[in-house]
């Protein structure tokens, strides 16, 4: 359970909202580090789009682990090294939905990663 002890007023809605003292990404990173301290044996971290961030990816790779993550539709990816070098990126949601694995370079990330386009049909 995530505690949200901080209260603030949302200027746009004029409603009181609550916030946590730590972010969800900080909690994920602490959980990964605790698993390593506990000598839990694993090779992959599986995460949904809420946790897909550059900082999380870098932490996982720095610990010599791999990750499988759902990317939000607005993430930018280059489909070749040349495209990345020339700044030609496309949104993830513009990729063809043929379920093939392709190599891609995320704009926010320095390493090439394997991408699989839209594995499942949208819900709803």
UniProtKB/TrEMBL annotation:
SUPFAM superfamilies: Ribonuclease H-like (SSF53098). InterPro entries: RNaseH-like_sf. It comes from the Bacteria. The lineage of its organism: Bacteria, Pseudomonadati, Pseudomonadota, Gammaproteobacteria, Chromatiales. This is Transposase, IS4 family protein.
